[in-house]
């Protein structure tokens, strides 16, 4: 995601989650374009959703009430046997058709699309002519087409970029944007599989459905649905694509399960930061290459085909002819040890406090660790785990350290061996 939330309405411990995003939403909030409402808008309101502008949509930042709020929603998602339901229908869903669809996608993303067997997927990056990241995306080989999900506030820019590349491609490929005819929900947490099983057909094999795989299926007998085992929290979970006209019925059924709680964008942001995952627009942008973002793994290992062949837009700025990563001036790191939360644009200095070496891009108070955490970029050479740094927070220098991410151990699902 790269849109931002417009107001700080949660307790002080988690206020930085929204504060850092508030500053970057002003331009979008001032737009004359009317906000779009997802199919579940009325349901969100009935459940106590505090609705805010996000990526051109009105979405819940949190749910009011004794069981709601960012802190409680966050911890519920992490609790054993529980699950959180997020409305992520603002995100863009695209189907790619035609015999040359994989060839085309390998020109616009860095991942090995041709190597995806049916129903398998991956996280990939869309790059510009300079090798900078336009967006991150989840791509699944759906058999007769390729299914792609892109970030909500990037989707129209992504499709403009795709069309420009299509105009020069000349092969057999078409882009089908699903607009709002298909909605998207995310069910996240260690209880997600049990909750999903109640909607899926009898005999559906969730045990052997691996992480980053997806299939077309029915939900509650409703045709035209698709589930992908993936997510943005560091937990097991699923993204569920469904026809707009069936979304309320499916969401209501999910929430009948007492282990599932509706969850807003505020908790989604703190969960992804604990998991060390990037927020596009904060931690990644068009000037950030995959290597700077420590996302080179999305191209595969040192001898992988994509590393050796390149072939994606801007590859010559990222890879050498031998498939090695070109040197970069900065790298993304985790930061921990400061006494107060460090918000985006907080300056990072070396241990002496005299030399500016980078800045924070995302920061908050971790509900699970109960300490401030942050990620940001530092000059290459200062990115080693354990490196002492100083942060300038409210004009005062605070000691901190570079650390590996994730901050909270990821619990993505693994199929039985």
List the topology elements.
Layout: H1 15-22, H2 26-29, E1 36-37, H3 41-46, E2 49-54, E3 57-63, H4 70-78, E4 83-87, E5 92-97, H5 101-108, E6 121-127, E7 133-141, E8 146-150, H6 155-167, E9 174-177, E10 182-188, H7 192-197, E11 214-219, E12 222-228, E13 237-243, H8 247-256, E14 260-262, H9 265-274, H10 305-309, E15 330-336, E16 347-350, E17 356-365, E18 372-379, E19 388-393, E20 396-403
Parallel strand pairs: 1-3, 4-14
Antiparallel strand pairs: 2-3, 4-10, 5-8, 5-9, 6-7, 7-8, 10-13, 11-12, 12-13, 15-18, 15-20, 16-17, 16-19, 17-18, 19-20
Helix pairs in contact: 4-9
Low-pLDDT runs = 1-30
**Biggest β-sheet: count, sense, barrel?**
6 strands, mixed
Q: What's the gyration radius in Å?
A: 21 Å
Mean pLDDT: 93
In total, the number of strands is 20
Portion of residues within helices: 10-25%
Strand content: 25-35%
Structure description:
The radius of gyration is 21 Å and the shape is globular. The chain has a six-stranded mixed sheet, with helices on both faces. Helix 4 crosses helix 9. It starts with 14 loop residues before the first helix and ends in a 14-residue tail after the last strand. The model is unreliable at 1-30 (pLDDT under 50). The chain contains ten helices and 20 strands. With 417 residues, the protein is α+β, with helices and mostly antiparallel strands.
